[in-house]
Amino acid sequence: MPRTEDDPLGxxxxxxxxxxxxxxxxxxxxxxxxxQGGPVRLRIAPAVLAVSLVAILALSLFAATGSPNPVVxxxxxxxxxxxxxxxxxxTATPEEHRGAPAATPSQEDNHHSSPEPSERPxxxxxPxxxxxPxxxxxxxxxxxxxxxxxxxxxxxxxRSGSGSSGGHDSSSD
Amino acid sequence: MSADTYxxxxxxxxxxxxxxxxxxxxxxxSAILADPExxxxxxxxxxxxxxxAWPRWRPDAPAEAWVHRIAVNRAISHRRSxxxxxxxxxxxxxxxxxxxTDPADEATRPDLLKALRLIPPKLxxxxxxxxxxxxxxxxxxxxxGVSERTIGTRxxxxxxxxxxxxxxxxxxxxxxxxxxxxxxxxxKD
Lengths: 173, 189
Prior knowledge:
Helix content of chain A: over 70%
Oligomer: heterodimer
Number of strands of chain B: 0
Distance between the termini of chain B: 16 Å
CATH superfamily of chain B: PhyR, sigma-like (SL) domain
CATH architecture of chain B: Up-down Bundle
CATH topology of chain B: Butyryl-CoA Dehydrogenase, subunit A, domain 3
Order of helices and strands of chain B: HHHHHHHH
Largest sheet of chain B: none
Number of strands of chain A: 0
Helix content of chain B: 55-70%
């Protein structure tokens, strides 16, 4: 069998190879790639969409709270609600306002904390005038019984004594 | 090979590529695997993989050679897994008689394809791409992702090993039992 450097098989073996491979007929099967769906980017599109939505939500919460810690994102809502419950004590609110500007001075501008102290002095000023009349009213009846007790004693003594003293006097006399 | 007529990502072009290249890729894998069912399965898998990567295909390489590269790699993986399974089967059947092969299957399987099955798949792929599809060494090198020198070495080794196998089992001088060759325009490199 003649062989060359470029054709190590030889012509007879090459003919056999071609003939045997030509005799093979592929079955007419449907393309499998049509049933596999689209390209990869179409199959992972829902996952990419979900991840992007979570990322946008996390970025918006980070921008709103200024903290990358997810625990802080939920705690900020609680701290916003909590100062409204602590309003009735007038002495606590000034302390909180003194501590808050030292901790986060930049957040005061964002959260408009300036209207809050203006609202809080108003209720603190309102109890003060209500408290002032009360002590003024109370001493008067407190003081009045004492002198009235003496006066009433005198008076009652005058009234009762007018009768009784007169009786004593009259009896003594 | 009309590489310039395909557009990457075009489904119509990929359908056309499938219609053109599927029989040729199937015959290549039939030569490497010597099993029509496995060849069909690997060919379909190769086209599925090629379809997923079709938007990234670059027209500077022939599309059919690109699919051949995917298919040959798929066939090599298949043969590797079959060999591992065969080793496990041998270990499992130690001490028992070997299972009898199907005589009908042995009779219908062409001799040369059986010989190709006995040499490494990379060498068999080089033989088929060179002597059946008519690729030159540069096209084979581009298809398999190796250098032209490597392809020349593989073709030489494949010829030697194939002849050794055929001389051991068959008579090389026997006349070919197939119809007359119709591919007279086979382009030699």
